[in-house]
Design goal:
Layout: H1 2-8, H2 10-21, E1 25-28, E2 31-32, E3 35-36, E4 39-45, E5 48-57, H3 65-77, E6 82-87, H4 93-102, E7 104-108, H5 109-115, H6 117-121, E8 126-137, E9 142-145, H7 150-159, E10 161-164, E11 167-169, H8 171-185, E12 191-196, E13 202-204, E14 211-225, H9 242-253, H10 259-264, E15 274-278, E16 283-291, E17 294-301, E18 303-304, E19 307-308, E20 311-316, E21 324-325, H11 329-344, H12 350-353, E22 372-376
Parallel strand pairs: 5-6, 6-7
Antiparallel strand pairs: 1-4, 2-3, 4-5, 8-9, 8-14, 9-22, 10-11, 10-13, 12-14, 13-14, 15-16, 15-21, 16-17, 17-20, 18-19
């Protein structure tokens, strides 16, 4: 089988060898539970073995859905965490839909040739992905979900408090505590982890400090191929990817400031008629006025739940260290357009959005970085 793959897919065999050099164990034509696979990949992640099963199809014909269904059943019988099918001829649309429903990854000849050796090898490297973080609110019964934008998500996951009988935690700490047991049962199909809280447990908003009675917390989890991700740099210390994104975004706004210097703290003085950027939240602002210890700021750009959120509010100037001055001409022109759009809208009058945030560490609130209600529970 290795020779056959080598004849057809030079990039694939090189990627497999690279994966092997990175510590994976490759087995050709392995038979598991009475079913055979073209090859398997085993990894040791956190002291636990993870299994990837792969079938290669040397045919010019498009793969049909029933072939994906059979392969998916084989993978489940082998207790594999990931199943990948590789086909020279490609896949029919119904096969792609079946693969999506069953968590099977598909690679055709074009993908094999276009991905490159390192990216292709990354398909044989698994990464745990968690997403869709929700609280179940007690009364009235509904759910609230954290926005998925990296900066906002990391802030809420780390700073929202969960307090109750026998529990004092945050969403991030709760997940970290259970991540090993979740990893053991995770597959490539999304699954839901649900945690129930004792009666009287509350969720404390990190901005408003308000308390909301909650019954539980849930999130979705699954294994994904590292090759499917744009980057896995720093994933072990930054599961939200906000740090890697922040580095890129900072350079677009102020090339004189590095990520390292920003982390150690910057000495910013808020000045009227200047634009600023909060790297932690990935929000952009315009400073309209500074009077004594207060500054009137316009949230010019924040993308939350896929929507542009703008507002005018007040902050204490003591929070200025959270803001990086924007100096790059191209970004200044872009933000100026957004600011003009805001000022021309009668829907965003100052009186509707003022909030006094003197005591807030991150210097902004009015639920600009808040959870959102998604549905009633039945």
């Amino acid at each position: 089988m290795k020779a056959k793959i080598n004849d057809k897919f030079t990039n694939l065999i090189q990627a497999i060898e690279l994966s092997k050099n990175n510590g994976s164990v490759i087995s050709w034509k392995e038979k598991i539970g009475g079913v055979r696979f073209s090859f398997t990949v085993r990894q040791n992640l956190g002291g636990e073995e993870r299994l990837i099963v792969v079938d290669c199809v040397d045919s010019d014909k498009l793969i049909k859905a029933k072939s994906i269904d059979r392969f998916s059943a084989k993978a489940r019988s082998a207790n594999a965490q990931m199943a990948i099918m590789i086909s020279l001829g490609g896949f029919q649309d119904d096969a792609k839909e079946s693969a999506l429903q069953n968590g099977v990854r598909l690679l055709d000849e074009a993908a094999i040739n276009e991905l490159g050796i390192e990216k292709l090898a990354a398909y044989f490297d698994l990464v745990m992905l968690s997403h869709t973080f929700r609280f179940q609110v007690a009364s009235p019964p509904h759910e609230v979900q954290f926005p998925e934008e990296p900066g906002v998500l990391s802030f809420l996951m780390q700073n929202t408090l969960i307090e109750g009988a026998g529990i004092s935690s945050s969403p991030e700490k709760l997940i970290d505590h259970h991540k090993s047991e979740v990893a053991k049962i995770a597959t490539s199909k999304p699954q839901k982890a649900q945690f129930s809280f004792p009666l009287g447990t509350v969720m404390i908003d990190p901005n408003l400090k308000s308390k909301t009675a909650v019954q539980g917390f849930s999130f979705m989890y699954q294994w994904v191929c590292a090759g499917e991700m744009k980057s896995t740099e720093g994933l072990d210390r930054d599961p939200y990817f906000w740090e890697s994104i922040a580095k890129s975004e900072i350079s677009k706004r102020n090339s004189l400031v590095s990520w390292e210097s920003l982390r150690s703290g910057i000495n910013t003085t808020l000045v009227e008629n200047k634009f600023y950027f909060n790297a932690r939240l990935q929000f952009s602002y315009f400073c309209e006025k500074v009077r004594k210890k207060k500054a009137i700021m316009v949230l010019v750009e924040s993308i939350q739940n896929g929507q542009l959120v703008q507002a005018r509010f007040r902050i204490d100037v003591s929070t200025a260290s959270n803001y990086l001055e924007v100096i790059e001409a191209e970004e200044l022109a872009r933000l100026q357009t957004l600011y003009v759009r805001f000022t021309l809208s009668d829907k965003n009058l100052e009186g509707r959005f003022k909030a006094f945030l003197d005591s807030l560490e991150d210097g902004e609130s009015i639920r600009l970085v808040a959870m959102f209600r998604i549905n009633n529970l039945t």
